[in-house]
Amino acid sequence: MPLAAVGQFCATASIAANKLICIELIKKAARQGASMIFLPEASDFISRNAQEAKDLTTSLGASEFLKGVQNEAAASRIWVSVGVHETTLKDKIFNTHLVIDSSGTIKSTYRKIHLFDVDIAGGPRLMESDTTEKGDVVGVPEKTPLGKLGLQTCYDMRFPESSITLRARGAELLAYPSAFTIRTGMAHWEVLLRSRAIETQTYVIAAAQIGQHNEKRASYGNAMIVDPWGTVLARCPDNLNKPTLAVADIDLESLYKVRTEMPVMDHRRTDLYPKIE
Ligand SMILES: O=C(O)CNC(=O)[C@H](CS)NC(=O)CCC(=O)C(=O)O
């Protein structure tokens, strides 16, 4: 049975420092026998403001951060899922989720489709669309050593439509690299992830940022792997002081048992509401 590793750390505005942390996590996951490691959203950097985000962002091909991650994926012979920023043709950024194979090649690119524009009394207030352009493709699951992987990002977990779309297209796992706020994380994080896993009957893997990135921004952590029954198989420790990993076996046989025993996809009343595909 293949082993998945989910990572958790606190990115700052230093791309060089974040790159070293990710390289160490990739090495450690490979040493533990994982076939694939999942790193958080915005693993390349968390910026202090919109201007800094624009200044730090490059194309995928010109990214020093990605070069380091791709080289280490190849050196450690492990697949990697990672969230990064990417320049667009306009003066904006894509919030991009990549799958890199064990030779260091980018196999799949997903650009976050739901942007986090919220203003909650007592915080947080974040307007992602000020800097970020939304992607316009849900995509098809990518074949990985763990199974067919559907790519999403963070806030996307609030939209079951896209996870059900990916399930309908063959997903056996869904990845949600994240940088969740603490307030919304305490109220919603685990419930959302377990709900997506239960209703789609897929594994859900959510790498996460944790801790204080700068004066204005902190993240909730609780990176986790959830099985298709909704059980939290692994969770990174609540450790603010160092990057951490958690691992779990991916058992597709038990996934198909869940789907056979309770075939919710076949029970849909698409005569009463739209079919998602
Ligand atoms: O800003 C970057 O560089 C990377 N992007 C993020 O951190 C994004 C947009 S601000 N964060 C979220 O989507 C949090 C969602 C969330 O917390 C919720 O749904 O409750």
Automatic annotation (TrEMBL):
The gene is PARPA_06226.1 scaffold 21360. Residues 1-252 form the CN hydrolase domain. It comes from the Eukaryota. One of its GO terms (molecular function) is hydrolase activity, acting on carbon-nitrogen (but not peptide) bonds, in linear amides. This is CN hydrolase domain-containing protein. InterPro entries: C-N_Hydrolase, C-N_Hydrolase_sf, Nit1/2_C-N_Hydrolase, UPF0012_CS. Keywords: Hydrolase.
